[in-house]
Amino acid sequence: MLEDDFTDILRKAKRGTETTDAEIASATGIALATLRAWNAGKAQPTDDEARAVARVLRLDPGKFADAAATRWHPTVALPSDVRHHPHDPHPSNGYLFFLEDGKTAALIDPAGLPQTILRAIAEGPYALRYILITHEHADHCDATADISRAFPSAQIVMHRDDVHAIGALGARALPVIDGDELPFGDNAAIRMLHTPGHTDGSSCFLFKSTLFTGDTLFAGSVGGAFGERSGYREILDSVSTKIFALDDATVLMPGHGPPTTVADEKAHNPFFGSA
Questions:
Q1: Whole-structure pTM value
Q2: Cα–chain center distance at 220
Q3: Which residues of 18-33 are buried (b: 16+ CB within 10 A; e: fewer)?
Q4: Which of 94, 135, 136 is nearest to 118 (CA)?
Q5: If pLDDT is split at 50, 70 and 90, which confidence band does 62 have?
Q6: Model confidence over 145-165: pLDDT tens digits?
Q7: Quick check: is 205 in a domain?
Q8: Percentage of the chain with pLDDT > 70?
Q9: What is the rounded CA–CA span in Å between residue 118 and residue 102?
Q10: In terms of CB atoms within 10 Å, which of 22, 77, 92, 146 comes out highest?
Q11: What's the Cα-to-Cα distance from 175 to each of 186, 213, 254, rounded to whole Å?
């Protein structure tokens, strides 16, 4: 199931472009009552209506029409060197990825019930090398202290703009910046991409051909824009100039919802026009 349906996309685009329902109604001729029904998830636009609204909101008309009609869902397998675990009680994704030796791992976003994460690490069993945090929101980092306590030699990695969220542990976090690489295995590295917009310190982590996107990008959508110094324009720029610059075959592992690929997002994400 996708993280965002067409009502989520509609809401994010309206907020990002500062466009009201009244302005959409005036520009398209669609009744306000109809727009309100869409907002409430009580009705669905026709293709022509979806395309008309998309043009006002600077979305891709065809892709938004497809989202409204639920015509696309990614079918991407989890990479063989990645393990997924839920962040109960949060509705977010946690991941472990590991080296070919099957023993050394990095953790993406320690959140939710610590025992769930500790169980996932023990199933390897893995020696935890890095604790990589994509951004400051609690559903991605509120178990940091517990995991760090269990694995004190694991290096915490988080952008300095968001590091306040983990309290005193922030002093131990490696202050990575855009493009920094962390050694991981023989002749390999994890590269951090700073992708502000969802938060000021939002980051993605690339290892080989897998990118962990946090809440910057979801399958068929983007995260909400909640940065203090960055927002909607920056999150779109982060995706188009950094994530879409990667190879089309790159597998994207979002903080919510199913995996996707760069090629799929270029082809189906309504926030970005056709190439």
A1: 0.96
A2: 11
A3: ebebeebbeebebeee
A4: 94
A5: very high
A6: 999 999 999 999 999 999 999
A7: yes
A8: 99
A9: 16
A10: 92
A11: 23, 18, 22
* Strand residues in the chain grouped as ranges (E): 82-86, 93-98, 104-108, 127-132, 155-157, 181-183, 189-194, 203-207, 210-214, 217-218, 221-222, 251-254, 260-261
Q: Can you tell me which residue has the tokens 């068929």?
A: 220
Residue the block writes with tokens 């997002």: 265
Query: Are 194 and 180 in contact, with CB atoms under 8 Å apart?
Result: no
110 and 50 share one domain: no
**Structural domain span for residue 233:** 82-268
Which amino acid, 195? T
- Taking the CA of residue 69 as centre, how many other CA atoms within 13 Å lie in the half-sphere pointing to its CB? 14
CATH of the domain at 197: 3.60.15.10
Q: Is 201 left (phi over 0), alpha (psi -120 to 50) or beta?
A: alpha
Q: Which secondary-structure segment (H or E) carries 141?
A: helix 138-141
Same domain, 86 and 202: yes
Q: Tell me if 273 is assigned to some domain.
A: no
Query: Which two three-digit tokens encode residue 175?
Result: 């202050």
pLDDT tens for 6-35 read 999 999 999 999 999 999 999 999 999 999
Distance of CA 177 to the CA centre of its chain: 18
CATH code assigned at 17: 1.10.260.40
In a 3-state reduction of DSSP, which class is residue 157? strand
Which tokens in the block code for residue 97?
């990825």
